[in-house]
Amino acid sequence: MRMTAVTGGLVWLGAPWLPVGERMSIGALDHSFLFFPLVVAPLVLALAASVLQPQGGARRLYRLGQRVQPFASASVLASFLVPHGALAGALVLPWTAMAIVLAIAGVPTALRGARPHLSRANLLVAHVLLPVATGWLIAARVGVAPASIGSLGVFLACLHFHFSGFTLQILVAATATRLPAVPRLAAIHRVVAIGAIVALPLISAGKLVPVPVLLTLGVAIIVIATVALATLGLAIALVTPVAFARRLLFVSAGCVAAAMVLAALFRLGELTGIALIGVDRMIVTHGLANALGFVGCGLLAHLRLAAARPS
Questions:
Q1: What kind and span of H or E run contains 31?
Q2: CA proximity to 166, closest of 210, 196, 137
Q3: Alpha-helical regions (H) of 273-296
Q4: Which residue, 8, 41, 168, 252, could crosslink 298 as a Cys pair with Cβ 3.0–4.6 Å?
Q5: Whose CA is closest to 172, among 67, 47, 274, 290?
Q6: Phi, psi torsion values for 22, nearest 5 degrees
Q7: Range of 224's domain?
Q8: pLDDT tens profile 300-309
Q9: How far is Cα 5 from Cα 166, in angstroms, rounded to an integer?
Q10: Which tens digit of pLDDT belongs to each residue from 230-271?
């Protein structure tokens, strides 16, 4: 898992200089997205397996999904190295197949798992939305888009369904297993768990209809839920004896604070018509802070905690 993520990270860093296909720049939307299949995927699937704890046939199926992940990720990368069209869409199909395998193993396990109810709900939503995320990715690579959201909206949906639809849900469920036994923290976690589940459908509905109030409400909920999750991470960091995990959780919280401020400023600019932060700068700064800082450091911290003290 670690070597897969390290190798993927090196490939991700070199992706903008690959001499074939569509060129990308560091921090651009496509480059930010590729951080998921190349680096995040092996980490988040390992964490998901640790929290989900599938048994029997589901465990074997989940491991199959983890084993094919590097090959599916390589196929996604190849899709970005050819022009939009049928071939680019076809190259995403191994990634879709992997997501379906994980969903077949993960959904029933989440439904009958021993975790607290809301954690099971987050795990369930994660494994339902991952195949949906791959559908958005296929549409983005083929080059088809509803007129109401356009090609940029399709790719943003793809990115958010992978990061918020899957990874955030797994981080929420993992956080529940590490929280100190403090009732107030448990109450905050319940709010975070519900917010993480409802925010993405609201954002999607607000863009597809479009209904601005739904979009604004969804963005507000995801901002609050993500900041609250980072705060819970700080609570874990303050009591954990694992120094490496503690440092990572502090970095993760700092990065998400910066990313969410940027997101709020961008949405406020959209509502007021005042360009507080341009879309290009928003994509680079918000995307990298979220992907590398919040998600990357958060996953590594929880994996280190899981290794130090199994659930």
A1: helix 29-35
A2: 196
A3: 279-288
A4: 252
A5: 47
A6: -85, 125
A7: 2-308
A8: 999 999 887 6
A9: 17
A10: 999 999 999 999 999 999 999 998 888 787 777 777 767 777
- C-alpha 169/C-alpha 256 separation (Å) is 15
Give pTM, 2 decimals. 0.89
- The rounded radius of gyration (Å) of the Cα atoms in the chain is 18
Average pLDDT over residues 270-287: 71
The Cα 234–Cα 256 span in angstroms is 12
Q: How crowded is residue 22: how many other Cβ atoms within 10 Å of its Cβ?
A: 13
State the Cα–Cα distance between residues 185 and 92, nearest whole angstrom: 40
Kindly compute the dihedral angle of the four CA atoms of residues 136, 139, 142, 148, in this order, to the nearest 10 degrees: -130
- Average pLDDT of the residues in 137-166: 89
- Taking the C-alpha atoms of residue 199 and residue 31, their distance in angstroms, rounded to an integer, is 24
- The interaxial angle of helices 117-142 and 93-111, nearest 10 deg, is 170
Residue type, 250: F
Place of tokens 């369904």: 161
- Measured distance CA(80)–CA(26) in Å, rounded: 14
Lowest mean per-residue pLDDT among 131-135, 181-185, 196-200: 181-185
- Residue 50: the pLDDT is 92
How many Å separate Cα 183 from the centre of its chain? 28
| pLDDT mean over 58-71 | 95
What is the Cα–Cα distance from 207 to 229, expressed in whole angstroms? 25
Considering its fold, how many domains does the chain have in total?
A: 1
Peptide bond into 210 cis (omega under 30): yes
Closest CA to 45 of 166, 133, 179: 166
Q: Would you state the structure tokens that stand for residue 61, as one six-digit string? A: 């199926």
Contact between 189 and 230 under an 8 Å Cβ cutoff? The reply is no
b or e along 70-96 (b: 16 or more beta carbons within 10 Å of the residue's beta carbon)? bebbbbbbbbbbbebeeebbebbebbb
Crossing angle of the two packed helices 183-208 and 150-162, in degrees rounded to 10? 160
